[in-house]
Amino acid sequence: MQGRTLPYRFGLRVLAFVAALTALFALVDRTTPRWPPIWLARLLPELPEDLARLRSADGKPLFLGDSVLHTAAMNEPDRRNLVRMLAKELETDIVRVSHGASGMDRYLAQVRYLLRAGVRPSSLVVLVNPRTFGPTAERNPSWSFALTNRMYTRPLLSRLQAVLKWDFGIPDEDEFLATEIRIGETVLGPLGALTRPGLEDPPDDVIRNRYLSRYATDIRTSSRLRDLAALARLTADAELPTLFYITPIDVQSMKQFLSAEEFGHVQQNIRTLRAVLRDTGATFLDLSTLLPGGDFDHPRADPHEHLRSTGRLKCVRKLAEAVQQLEGQG
Fold this sequence. Notes:
- The chain is an alpha/beta fold.
- The chain has 15 helices and 7 strands.
- It has 2 domains: 1-32; 56-143 and 172-327, Rossmann fold (3-Layer(aba) Sandwich), CATH 3.40.50.1110.
- It is globular.
């Protein structure tokens, strides 16, 4: 009888050992700022490249955002990005951490990393891009930072998951293009058929669908909206002076393609963002309707939020006053 129980006892010991090892990994991964040994790190995906820049923000203004913060039109004489313009206006150094297609989930992970590492910027400015709360950004597999976001707080375990081909819930390209686009109560159809990605000179109805899918879908169910609320509460609890600013969107060009009713859904999304920020007591600046169409730097058929120098300067004037007030709170 005893001989027959030995395999079970051995199996239980193996399970207990694995469980203890996993718990140890989780504890070390969460509580220590040290990364894995060099020999192990070489076998894993690289850590986010911006960790050093985040740590350098101690005692300085920090801007978190997407490509709106670091782009400039190629054919302009003034090719300073928005943050460089603002730093010149304020006569101070500003740390910018920005990546194309970033969203609120990434900013939340970055601020959690800052607080865990004991880094305290003198002030924090977080870009709130309305387009990033919709399905064209949130479900785009090319713009998913699910793995990167985990690396900020779980640098070892998240990379081990990546080695094991963990999908982190990211849809594939076919699933993304099959995303149902709904405007109010009206189902328009699958994203791919509506927007025809890759078509450089589409007819007006396709351009209209691109505006609708990027700006008019109901964002109230977006996980990034919950991340926005969580980030506002986190910075408030940490007593970190923070400004959220809603980026300008090309309302003037948008109105050329959308009906008044369709544009109403865009306005509702802006009101939703404002409501979340207001309800959490956050300081925010709504620049969504600040600029005319000529201040944007995007092709007619590919609407986005990149700005020409004239638009960046107008934003800088608004932001400069707000950041000065914010710095005074620190």
